[in-house]
Write a structure and sequence with these properties.
There is one protein chain. The protein is mainly α. The protein has one domain. Helix content is 36%, strand content 0%. It is built from two helices and no strands. Helix 1 runs parallel beside helix 2.
């Protein structure tokens, strides 16, 4: 659902109680290219510092940035429709693990 579709949907709910569950694909793989590049990141000391690991981390950071932007747009729609002040907003990111050394999948 685009932010326009979401906004239109929310406008139709004014005055009605509702429950909204917003689920983003981000930051799950495959990760996307974006503003952050491999040259912009440093890897943790327990990782092998290669261009590939830096590129993967940069792409992951781009996904997190995209998710943050999506969530921000959702909050703006709630504010624009005067629903924010009465909303209970729960943010839950279920990224159980990453595909890097010493993350949950490899423990």
């Amino acid at each position: 659902m685009t932010s326009y579709e979401f906004s239109t949907y929310i406008e139709g709910l004014k005055g009605e109680p509702f429950c909204l569950i917003y689920a983003s694909h981000e930051p799950h793989a495959p990760h996307m290219e974006g503003r952050i590049t491999a040259n912009d990141v440093s890897v943790p000391p327990h990782w092998l510092d290669t261009w590939e690991s830096r590129d993967l981390l940069a792409r992951y950071m781009n996904d997190v940035e995209a998710m943050d932007s999506e969530f921000g747009k959702l909050m703006e729609v709630l504010k624009d429709n005067e629903l924010y002040q009465d909303a209970v907003v729960l943010f839950w990111q279920a990224q159980e693990s990453l595909q890097w050394p010493l993350q949950q999948r490899t423990v």
